Amino acid sequence: MTLNSDALSGPTVLRAGDSIVIHGVELDVVEDEGEGGSKTLVLSGTALMEVGSGAWSLVADSGPEKGQVIPMVDRIEIGRALECDISILEPGLSRKHAELELDGDQLILRDLGSVNGTFVNGEKIDEATLKDGDRMQFERIRFIVREP
Global pTM? Predict the structure, then answer.
């Protein structure tokens, strides 16, 4: 995985104009021209792995990352902190907001005591077992769950 032709070794803030290559696929980061300004999504190398058959994945459904596919690994932490697997620089997100965890063939989403809540299909949750097509929301950032 490279960012602007340099090897990516840890969590990195992506900015408009950056170019990422993952398994031969080039992704260009563009600035969101929609209402409310753009937010920055930071993905660590552990969260970006090749999507194969049989893998749960998340599809970004908002912001400049819309359409980006994030393959699920055993556990993904989501929050504002840069050490999170998916770090979203959104003021209303808690530093460690929520976590996704694979439990056998189930994908579990847990709120980690966030101030503003974690939502699935518009409902505030503490914990939820996700299924294909579910919509997770953290403030204004949304993801669609894809089941294998």
Answer: 0.66
